[in-house]
Every structure is written in C-alpha cells, then in structure tokens.
Amino acid sequence: MADYRTPSPLARDAMAYVLAGGRGTRLYEMTDRRAKPAVYFGGKSRIIDFALSNALNSGIRRISVATQYQAHSLIRHLQRGWNFLRTERNESFDVLPASQRVREDMWYAGTADAVYQNMDIIQDYGPRYIVVLAGDHIYKMDYEIMLRQHVDTGADVTIGCLEVPRLEARGFGVMHVDGRDRVVDFVEKPADPPGIPDKPDMALASMGIYVFETRFLMDQLRRDAATEGSSRDFGKDIIPYLVKNGSAWAHRFNRSCVRSANEDVAYWRDVGTVDAYWKANIDLTDPLPQLDLYDRDWPIWTYAEITPPAKFVHDLDGRRGQAVASLVSGGCIVSGASVNRTLLSTGSKVHSYSELHEAVVLPYCEIGRGVRLRKVVLDRGVNVPEGLVVGEDPEFDRKWFRRTDEGVTLITQPMIDRYLASR
C-alpha cells in the first residue's frame, strides 16, 4: 500500500546555531557598547530577532547563540525576550559566550571556532542537522525549505545565497555554480564575479547561512582545528575546502524567502553601515514597505516591554502634536511637535515646537523644545538640548557629530555632552 503521509518536518531534528559575536565597526559609535546583532531595529526589535524568529517560525525548537564582543546588552535581551522555550517540551535556548573553554588564552578565533568550542553542548542535544546563521541581517526565511533541499541533494553543505547583479557582487563571497546549483568554485570578493548559468548578469552571493548534518560538521571542525594556518572560519576555510573536496550546493534565497501579500521582493538587508541602517529603518515608513512587519503569519518575536500607548498632545497652530508617514512605538509622547517620515522607538519623547524629518530615534530619547532634526540617527537614551538643529549645516554636523558621505548624521550622548561643554 502506498504511503501518503506527509514527511515529518526536518526542522524538528535541527538546531539553529546563531553567530552573534560581530562588532559591526562600520556602525561606529552605535556598537561601542553593544554587538551589531543587539542594535535596535524597527522601533521594537533588535537585529538578531530576525534570524531567531525565522528559526522559530520554521519549526526549529533548539536554538543556540554564540556571543563575544560587548555581549551584555545582547545577552540581557535574549534572557528577557527568548526565555519561553522549555526543556520539558524538547525545546532549548542556550547563550554561549566566548569563555575560553578550549584554552585559557583562546577566545573564539573565527566563526567555525565559535561552533567547534561548543561541540559537546551541541552533541548533548543530538540534533541531526545544524543550521548555522549570521545574527546580523534583516530578512524573513523558511529554513525548512533549505533543509529539504539539503536532504534531497545529498549535499555535504548547503549554502544560502542571494541573487545580486553580477558587478555588485564584488564585495561578497560568490558561488560559481553549474546548471543544477552545485557549487564548483567559491571566490571571495572577486574582481570579475562569475554569473549564474540561467542568469548570466546575476551572481550568487553567500548569505552566511549553512546547513550541515551535525556529525559531518563535527568531523570537519575537528579536521579544521588540526589544520595549521587555518583561520577557523566558515567562509575562509570550511566552505572552500568542501567546495573543492566535497559536495556543496547553493540554495537560492528567493526559494525560501517569506513574503506576505504586501511584499513584492525577496527582502534581505545588511544594515552594517550607518547609511544602510538609516535607510532600512526609514523605508519602513513607506505606505507599503518592502519589509512587512505586520505579517501575523510570520511574526518577528522580540522582548516586548510593557509600555503605555503612544500619545500626541496639543492642538494649536505651530504647536500641534502630530506624526505623518511615521512609526511611533509604545510609550512615546509627541508633545506639540511635528514628526514626518520618522521612526520613534519605545519610550521616546519629542517636546513642543520641534520638527523631525527622516529621523531614526532609538529607545528612550528625549528631544527638547525647538529642535530641528533631519536625516539623523539618535542612539539610545540621547537627550537633545533645546534649540539644536542638525541636518541643515553639513560643517556643523561634521564638527560635533558623525556625518556620513551620504548626509546621515549619527548622534550619541557623548557627542551631545561634548557639544554642550563647548558652549
């Protein structure tokens, strides 16, 4: 008799291992006190919430997060927002800080080493598959589909890939594939990226997402750890070795990206620069943004602070509390101020006669009276003094704050303090 049962989801037998130790140096002062995955995004979330939510929504119930640089803010967020996974339901959530578990003088040397040093913890759970994820990108993806491809092809490793215009792929690790998407060569930041056979003007860029059978990965990590001169990194060592000596397959992101009815494109963003971070947040204020945060079928889980509703007060000419084409989070108060195409994160306050345009305001900022801010990013907890104007005089902005070549100004509290001390 034929067996018509639906195959058991592979995600049940998988662990998501999230690499979240990156500093994110191109975000400058935003990562002075927090790792890049812990940076706020979209008013309520952190960047890492996207990879974690993808894992959870895909059906993966065993999750580990490896941390290293400036980990306190990230660990606190994970403890508060992701402590609902329960061992009695065969679920687990582990935070794995670099703790010199191999040698007293050895922190995580690279992305592969961040897995190698915790092999015993992974093996205790016994997952059949391991999905290695970067914790610092914004996207929605069903990892079950990638797991299914991995099993169907019999691959040693399956590599998540973005289709990008060929000449824009020069800053990525690029997969050279055959007509079946088997990887025949891996090139790091090539001057002349190889095209895709069916789309010669496009290239396949690595997303830093890998699927392995756990036993196979453990063997490869041991081999790599014994290899003199290895940098202990997936992109530099493990993947090139398997492309040459094993079976590596590319998985195209557009096959497993999650899109609501309001999303037209396969959305993926690296918000690793101030300009990219500002733009990705401001894009959310569009009437139909390319990233739909309102999709209840694929929610972005996070630590939800208990806050009162947002509040708008005063209704006089020149002193009207209003927000247009903006996202305003819980606990915010817009008091006689005008907010346009702006994102206000939790608990921020804007006082009378102030004007904000294309501002990304992180949690618990306070903006004084008569302030004008245009095209700025305010770090968490910044108190903007009365009358400050940023975004209209590039020389002033560059002198006191961090202004990018594209005209975005990053403002932190130490910058404000330095400005005030000069007056």
Head-to-tail CA distance between termini = 85 Å
Mean pLDDT: 95
> Looking at the structure, what is the overall shape?
globular
What characterizes the major β-sheet?
9 strands, mixed
CATH class of the largest domain: Alpha Beta
Strand-pairing-aware structural class: alpha/beta
Helix content: 10-25%
Number of strands: 29
EC number: 2.7.7.27
Binding site for alpha-D-glucose 1-phosphate: 108, 173, 188-189, 206
GO molecular function, one term: glucose-1-phosphate adenylyltransferase activity
Subunit structure: Homotetramer.
Q: What descriptive keywords fit this protein?
A:
alpha/beta, nine-stranded mixed sheet, 29 strands, 22% helix
Can you describe this structure?
The chain is an alpha/beta fold. The chain folds into 2 domains: 10-272, Spore Coat Polysaccharide Biosynthesis Protein SpsA, Chain A (Alpha-Beta Complex), CATH 3.90.550; 311-422, UDP N-Acetylglucosamine Acyltransferase, domain 1 (3 Solenoid), CATH 2.160.10. The chain contains 10 helices and 29 strands. The strands form 6 sheets. Strands 1, 4, 5, 6, 8, 9, 10, 11 and 12 form a 9-stranded mixed beta sheet that branches. Strands 17, 18, 20, 21, 23, 25, 27, 28 and 29 form a 9-stranded mixed beta sheet that branches. A 5-stranded parallel beta sheet has the order 14-19-22-24-26, with no helix packed on it. The N and C termini lie far apart (85 Å). 45% of the residues are buried. The model is unreliable at 1-5 (pLDDT under 50).
